[in-house]
Amino acid sequence: MSWPQAAERRAGQGAADRWLAALLWAAALFSSGIVFVIVSTVAVEAIPFLREIGLTRLVSDEGWYPTYGRFQMTAMLIGSLVVAAGACVLALPAGVVSAVYLAFYAGRWSGRIYQRLLEILAGIPSVVLGFWGLTTVVPLIAKVEQPGTSLLAASFVLTLMILPTVALIAFARIAAVPDAYYRGAIGLGFSRWQAIRQVVLPAARPGIATGCILAFARALGETMAVVMVAGNIVQVPTSVFQPVRTLSANIALEVGYAMDVHRSSLFASATILVLAVLVIFAVGRWVAREDAHV
Amino acid sequence: MSEASQPLLAHRSALRRVDWSAPAVCAIPVAVVAVMAWMLGEIAWLGADKLSWTFLTEAPRNAGREGGIGPIIASTGLIVGICLATALPLAVATSVLIAEYLPAHSRTVRVMRTLLDVLAAVPSIVFGVFGYAFFALALGFGFSILSGGLTLATMILPILIGSIEQSLRAVPLDMRIAGAGLGMTRPAVIARVLLPLASPGILAGTLLGLGRALAETAALVFTSGYVARMPESLLDSGRTLSIHVFDLSMNVPGGSGPAAGTTLLLVLLLLVLNGALLWLIAIWRRRTGMSFTLTP
């Protein structure tokens, strides 16, 4: 809502208005430019690694022994993807069903309460989830198979983190589907579930997909909760009970003491991480734009 | 979908055949709520006997296994204070430009909003290594409360701008016309009329940002550092409640008792914040008749 022209012409005169506008422009350029400062700072720190080692050795080296000049990150890349995918396997269906519950099955109060609880869950710090995972979930998993800190623990904790994102976005998109779709389907003799499954969800699909894509990006970038429960051993996991180390966890574990090229390699992995998240983000945007055409 | 529209028709079809989907769909929320209750209950159970006045005021001893978290609460306050003191003026200025000076659908606004959305999507560990390279090393602030606070400020900026812009846009157009009609200049209308009217929304956004700042760990480990002493200046290192929980549970064997106490305090703080937020949003709804979107 910008100002009506006449009002703007009257109130937008004088030196005070020009000075304020100049000040606000400076602030706005600063805040919207920060993202460039962040990405370029991290990328510049990665240059020594790119120059001396190069990207191909991230794949071709034997293992991750940075102090001995071996920089293979494949295991950690796979670790990141598998942990995030594992979280999505649980969180996406549960999130979408939660949204369906909020939209069609919940009573007036139970729906409101569940929505508030999801908002609270979204705000629970990752370190709190990590602490609970470490004291409660990990020992439970250890009873099934040692050591307990594992891919499974990491994915489970991440599930709780991204479920509210999926559920709240999907709910908003389902609520935006015109009422007439659902009523029409019921009028044609569809059952409640058939109407939802075959009419409402397909209509909301691009919006829901965007929510899922954003959730995957969050899972990929999440660090502390994963560091606490994943076990952090650099290996390609062959079962869900094995420890893994993700790319972001590796940065958090090693930046504190890394020197020279090792340090630069961590900034290189941070650059890879942020670029991956931004590409996923752009895909999400693109899918959302498809939504606008419907 | 409104509640009013579905029952009549939906129930008629439900009379014809039993609706098995209801228990199946409801099982998921029940499971989610059960896991949440399990988690919060466990944290309350583990942390309740730790939480006492001495725990909140004393300094930690023996790497945090004994003593309390007094200096950690102080550092947390300072870091969050710096974060809000820098981010809030910047966010208000940016939102006022976007909402009051630029045409709503202009290209400039679209570009700025996209850049802020991208900023919001950057993972927190990347903010951490950025703050380490930029504030701690390049600007020479070292591992300090200042570095940590500034890093957090860059992180919560998009949340603040999103909610402040939303609040300004909810103030009716008439207010601007009336202000101009009374001969007020635009800066005067903004300062005396629009910002005061938008204040509940601005405060709600601030609480949202505060919650994010309190919850953060990854962005702080390499910027504000780990030191658990009482900070004497803003250039001292200081650890927040979140980092304390992380350090105790990862690096200090036998530290899970005080970690649970600190976790409980953190959760309680966030629940209080959440309650205040709901209250503000209710005020907002009564005043403007508009809903307030909490971006997940």
Automatic annotation (TrEMBL), chain A:
It is found in: Cell inner membrane; Cell membrane. Coiled coil: none annotated. One of its GO terms (molecular function) is phosphate transmembrane transporter activity. Residues 77-284 form the ABC transmembrane type-1 domain. Keywords: Cell inner membrane, Cell membrane, Membrane, Phosphate transport, Transmembrane, Transmembrane helix, Transport. It comes from the Bacteria. One of its GO terms (biological process) is phosphate ion transport. Gene3D superfamilies: MetI-like. GO terms for cellular component: plasma membrane. The chain crosses the membrane at residues 20-44, 75-105, 117-141, 153-176, 266-288. It is a multi-pass membrane protein. PANTHER family: PHOSPHATE TRANSPORT SYSTEM PERMEASE PROTEIN PST, PHOSPHATE TRANSPORT SYSTEM PERMEASE PROTEIN PSTC. Belongs to the binding-protein-dependent transport system permease family. CysTW subfamily. Part of the binding-protein-dependent transport system for phosphate; probably responsible for the translocation of the substrate across the membrane. This is Phosphate transport system permease protein.
From TrEMBL, chain B:
Pfam families: BPD_transp_1. It is a multi-pass membrane protein. One of its GO terms (cellular component) is plasma membrane. One of its GO terms (molecular function) is phosphate transmembrane transporter activity. InterPro entries: MetI-like, MetI-like_sf, Phosphate_PstA. The chain crosses the membrane at residues 20-41, 72-102, 114-135, 141-161, 193-215, 259-284. Its main location: membrane. Residues 73-277 form the ABC transmembrane type-1 domain. Keywords: Cell membrane, Membrane, Transmembrane, Transmembrane helix, Transport. SUPFAM superfamilies: MetI-like (SSF161098). It is found in: Cell inner membrane; Cell membrane. CDD domains: TM_PBP2. One of its GO terms (biological process) is phosphate ion transmembrane transport. PANTHER family: PHOSPHATE TRANSPORT SYSTEM PERMEASE PROTEIN PSTA-RELATED. Belongs to the binding-protein-dependent transport system permease family. CysTW subfamily. This is Phosphate transport system permease protein PstA. The lineage of its organism: Bacteria, Pseudomonadati, Pseudomonadota, Alphaproteobacteria, Rhodospirillales. The gene is pstA.
